[in-house]
Amino acid sequence: MMRRRTTLASCTALALAMGATACGGGEVTAGGGDKALGGQTLTVAGVWSGSEQKNFQKVLDAFGEETGAKVQFVSTGDNVSTVVGSKIEGGNAPDVVMVPQVGVLKQFAKKGWLKPLSKKTEQSVDTNYADVWKKYGSVEGSLYGLYFKAAHKSTVWYSPDALDQAGVKTPKTYKEMLKAGGTVSDSGLAAFSVAGQDGWTLTDWFENIYLSQAGPEKYDKLAAHKIKWTDPSVVEALTTLGKLFKDEQLIAGGRKEALSTDFPGSVEKVFGPEPQAGMVYEGDFVAGVAKDQFGKKIGQDADFFPFPAVDGGKAPVVSGGDAAVALKDGKNQKGAMKLLEYLATPEAAAVWAEAGGFLSPNKKLDLAEYGDDVTRETAKSLVGAGNSVRFDMSDQAPASFGGTKGMGEWKLLQDFLRDPSDPKATAQRLEAAAAKADKG
Fold it and tell me: Signal peptide: which range, if any (predicted)?
């Protein structure tokens, strides 16, 4: 890949993070560029596919260019816990896993699968990250996970042309958003493209509504399962979400088609060659798909507004992230630790930031490294929120409840999309599944 220069700010931050002093006007290199891992191979597993996998490979290639290592990425699909467990049992464990859920990270640590991160990486985290990221990467006081990629999951993406043609402005409240959606539908396009085939997108819908409507204290309690899913606040949030799901004209193709639409497909329905909807709710990573797959100019052809406040609450800020962990059974322990040390630097984050569809929780990454103003504003909002953001609730749950395809919250919210007529019954099913996961 093309070698890239870093800004002076990035160079200085990298020197601090890596203990290096050789920034004097030249290029900053991972591992000092000494090819210390020449001839060695590392395997990294994660859920990414498509443009995300392609852009992460650029980061791995940058590491390989400087260290001499060859790094292979293996996509696990959504069931990362099951796939990694099978690979460990089969004696083919990856060296590093990009874990997309806090609950899965905790599960891996409790099973004894993980190695604590090196002191060098932990020092970088202490210096370059808000405390919340260390908290979610730690289990019983030991730091196992480095959050390399963050997500701002309180963004609603839209086609400016679609909203302009309908004569509506970006909404400030949830009620205004549904009203604007009705106007967009009347103009010929459905209001929303919903990725119901991917259950995780439905949990994100619920979490934003719940955080704004019920408030952060209730959110924290529900995330820790200190209140039951049958709590009236849960039923109220499901009722609010159900109003959207019930209105067939608001959803592209109706509920049935939404259940067969995956995340990339939901973005295509708004920004693809044959638009079917004016808006799609999901995180900042929508921009990467819109840009890479459909050639949209972010801020011009594709833009976002913050997920609006619900019923007089505050506008929610829900985040998520992918944490890099090193497996004890990996065949290249030294290489794994070197890779994690590299991923903790601003240089590594800058590679993907330049490619797009990415946010870094690393405070030392120069915002100028992002390729457009919209992404810069999103990154500034997320990093600037510090410890006040709330981490994705389903990602904090045990994997069998909050992070497995065809099970738990993912499946039950898909069932709710299919038939949103009984929020109370759905809450009861969610509670039963959460209690079972806790015991398991």
Answer: 1-22
